[in-house]
Amino acid sequence: MTCxxxxxxxxxxxxxxxxxxxVFLADLVGYHEPLDVAAEALGLxxxxxxxxxxxxxxxxxxxxxxxxxxMLSGFIGVAIILAIGLAASRALRAMRRVEDKKPSG
Amino acid sequence: MHIPDGFLDPATAALTxxxxxxxxxxxxxxxxxxxxxxxxxxxxxxxxxxxAAQMLNWPxxxxxxxxxxxxALAAILLGPWLxxxxxxxxxxxxxxxxxxxxxxxxxxxxxxxxxxxxxxxYLTYKSALKLIKRWDAARLLGSFIGGWLSITIAGLAxxxxxxxxxxxxxxxxxxxxxxxxxxxxxGVIEGIITALTILYVARKSxxxxxxxxxxxxx
Lengths: 105, 218
Known about the structure:
The complex is a heterodimer of chains A (105) and B (218).
Chain A: H1 3-29, H2 34-42, H3 66-101
Helix pairs in contact in A: 1-3
Chain B: H1 10-34, H2 37-54, E1 58-60, E2 64-66, H3 71-78, H4 80-98, H5 106-131, H6 135-163, H7 171-204
Helix pairs in contact in B: 1-4, 1-5, 2-4, 3-4, 3-5, 3-6, 3-7, 4-5, 5-6, 6-7
């Protein structure tokens, strides 16, 4: 198995187990980054919900339980990144073919 | 470490966007010179893996939590330019699709995690390869310290950005110790994950570690 395939499988496993860390444990002990501590000390206001544009806010899918939505969000994110990579790879191949066809000199 | 909308004043947001666009343009120019279809696959899969790894929030005793950033890992594996592209891809999708990290603060988040963390990790690893003669020790220390330092310095940069605001003249004095201090502690875990991953890749496919090219480590 190639290194890339192994990495891809590891990625999918990470997404499958991600709700344990991103939903279950976060609910259990509370998710609080150092950035939140610093922002609280200054009284900064988080405008994420006020100016939100996405239905997938907080890696949730409307209508689905948090655990399922979190995992599905993970798959959506991974799929979009892979699609962008595939498109870039095809564009690069097409560009190289055009360059190769150009008469040299 | 993802700064949400509302935490930065317009001047800091604009300045960090300019830095992101300038550095990003140069990174794309450098990447274009070396890019192959295989490298595109490598960048894409690493970006997907880092995206997934960032979804694993590790809650810690004491009420705080962290997740992997992956800047040092990406830069050690791919070099600073392709590492930037991998991290930018992750941060852009997180921002646009999931609103994790604000759109007004995307420049700052890219600056911290795709530029500062990547460059810190890469330069530390390269320095370790030069300074330490034994390859295995150089890889271990370079990737561990690179991962740890990348988070500490990125946390410091983040503290400077949110602390620098006309409304809070002494904000930096509050935010920098919190951000740098916490991330210096939490960064140990980033260092361990970075080191374990690099040691694994070095054993299986050492040719994949771009930052070792031309150093004589195999």
